[in-house]
Design brief:
- The chain contains 14 helices and 10 strands.
- 41% of the residues lie in helices and 19% in strands.
- It folds into 3 domains: 13-114; 123-190, Arc Repressor Mutant, subunit A, CATH 1.10.10; 198-292, no CATH class.
- With 294 residues, the chain is an alpha+beta fold.
- The chain has a 5-stranded mixed beta sheet.
- Strand 8 (241-251) and strand 9 (254-261) form a beta hairpin.
């Protein structure tokens, strides 16, 4: 999703592959022109990748040789491209996943041969389950937020949400219309508990998936959190809002935690943050020294 790495359980992989396989980006003229293949040539190459992989891990070079033997030498260069153009569509179709490394080389295997109990669900069933999981975690959310989370255009995201509308409820969130799971609406309305103070790591999903950004961080601090090239800074979370940024490094057997709040914090919040730093130290097995940057 979104063209970036995600960590999934093996049991969940068929669910996401069934949804990813519905993407048509690989068959659009612009992408085909970029890779220099026709739709028929791309189909032939993807079929060759699937036919070349099994339960025995292959390096990229080994896979390229097998594919080239099936469809011609031109495919070898494309398979070894630094952009990995052929690997993504093959992975989206459920024909390729990473295997165990072989020395300094990555390897690939076919998921239905490598994982036990591999069974792809129906695409519509997969999308309904993904919508349920997304809204259970991030809802209420708009179609634009769902589209951004997955990495698609708003129009298909809207159609996917509409297909699940018997399970959804449209709600008002501070003047903004959004979708929530119908079964969750009552619990959301009752929720009044104070959110805990947290030191969230870089790229934490709470920060990466929260939209609109003003619901998470004041406008003047956005660039401190959402940096260039898609980098997301570790943040201090207070009552669900970003109240600062932080970082840590190991020095002399000690973990140096530095916190830079965006404004004055009450003493109780500072104690909460100190507790978070201690949790980090306990997790990493080293003592912590906490420093504040005014």
């Amino acid at each position: 999703m979104r063209g970036t790495l995600h960590l999934l359980t093996a049991d969940d992989l068929p669910l996401y592959v069934a949804a990813l396989a519905t993407h048509d980006r690989w068959w659009k003229g612009a992408w085909l022109r970029m890779i220099g293949l026709s739709a028929d040539q791309l189909r032939e190459t993807l079929d060759a990748i699937r036919g070349s992989l099994g339960a025995r891990p292959l390096t990229r070079e080994q896979l390229a040789e097998k594919v080239a033997a099936k469809v011609g030498p031109r495919a070898r260069r494309r398979m070894l491209s630094g952009w990995g153009e052929m690997l993504k569509p093959a992975a989206f179709e459920g024909s390729l996943i990473s295997g165990p490394p072989k020395g300094q080389s990555v390897t690939f295997v076919r998921p239905d041969r490598w994982l036990r109990g591999w069974k792809l669900p129906d695409a519509d069933q997969a999308w309904r389950e993904i919508v349920r999981r997304y809204l259970r975690t991030y809802g209420p959310a708009t179609r634009e937020e769902f589209a951004r989370w997955w990495g698609m255009q708003p129009a298909p995201a809207g159609r996917i949400l509409q297909a699940s509308d018997d399970k959804l409820a449209e709600v008002d969130v501070e003047g903004r219309r959004a979708w929530a799971l119908a079964e969750d609406v009552a619990a959301i309305r009752r929720a009044r508990s104070r959110a805990p103070t947290r030191l969230l790591p870089a790229f934490d999903v709470y920060v990466a998936a929260t939209r609109p950004r003003e619901s998470l961080v004041l406008k003047r601090f956005e660039e401190r959190v959402f940096r260039t090239a898609g980098w997301i800074t570790p943040v201090v979370l207070v009552d669900g809002m970003v109240a600062g940024v932080w970082g840590h490094e190991v020095s002399g057997g000690r973990i140096e935690v530095t916190v830079e709040p965006f404004g004055k914090l009450p003493a109780v919040r500072k104690r909460d943050i100190a507790g978070e730093a201690d949790r980090l130290g306990a997790f990493l097995g080293s003592p912590v020294r906490l420093s504040w940057i005014a």
